[in-house]
Amino acid sequence: EVQLVESGGGLVAPGGSLRLSCAASGFTFSTYNMNWVRQAPGKGLEWLSYIDYTSSSINYADSVKGRFTVSRDNAKNSLYLQMNSLRAEDTAVYYCAREDLVVVPAVSHYFDYWGRGILVTVSS
Amino acid sequence: DIQMTQSPSSLSASVGDRVTITCRASQSIRSSLNWYQQKPGKAPKLLISVASSLQSGVPSRFSGSGSGTDFTLTINSLQPEDFATYYCQQSHSSPVYSFGQGTKLEIK
Q: How many CB atoms within 10 Å of residue B82?
């Protein structure tokens, strides 16, 4: 059974840092691209970051570029999100999501498994 | 960046109704459109990929259509468990993605 479990959330002061982890099991983690998505309280989903299975391709949303860093350790089946210079507007539930793709009828990507999410609260 | 706009933002319907949710992309995304269902306090669940491909285990009352810039999610014969928030997502600009703002489906 595919499982993604986030950890490392909590309360942090503005300007502070936090490192989220996502532990993967039930699939060959080293062959899948992964993403982080967040959801502010009462708001919609916001895609944050992508990392391919070899860590050679990484992308970020403009809202977190330069402040957040995604990484992975395939030997530990883990995905990470280092969050620096945190702001009140970064308060959200953070999800890790596995990415898969289809090639027929055309190449298309989707997020087929999600973790349960972890709450990050940025407040003084 | 590709912007995704869903309509309506909220919708009230009754059990047994047929409902349609629309998602519009700011530019053509061909068929690179996914639909997710999210219930309160839960992670999103993938319903449909590539605009119309139903995921395994998803009831056949759910269907998706569209290509280019305009897409729809249709739910036939609404069931109590279908009341949730639905999101579209474009993957045309992979590996940069974007979601619609969501459509909350409520019981009338």
A: 20
Q: Inspect the interface and report whether the beta carbons of B99 and A47 lie closer than 8 Å.
A: yes
pLDDT digits (tens, 9 = 90+) for A13-39: 999 999 999 999 999 999 999 999 999
Could you count the other beta carbons within 10 Å of the beta carbon of residue B35?
29
| pLDDT reported for residue A106 | 76
Express each pLDDT in B7-27 by its tens digit: 999 999 999 999 999 999 999
Percent of chain B with pLDDT over 90: 97
Using a CB-CB cut-off of 8 Å, the residues of chain A touching B1 are: 62
Contact A32, A25 (CB under 8 A): no
Q: Give the separation between CA B27 and CA B68, rounded to whole angstroms.
A: 8
In single-letter form, the type of residue at position B100 comes to G
The chain B residues in contact with chain A (CB within 8 A) are: 1, 30-32, 34, 36, 38, 42-46, 49-50, 53, 55, 87, 89, 91, 94-102
Q: Is A109 exposed, middle or buried (0-12, 13-18, 19+ CB in 10 A)?
A: buried
A53 touches chain B (CB under 8 A): no
Look up tokens 């502010």; give the residue: A40
Instruction: For B38-55, write each residue's pLDDT tens digit.
Output: 999 999 999 999 999 999
**Could you say which of A59, A102, A110 has the minimum Cβ distance to residue B95?**
A59
Minimal-distance CA residue of chain B relative to A36: B97
Residue B90 tokens read as: 């474009």
- Residue B53, CB-side half-sphere exposure with 13 Å CA sphere: 18
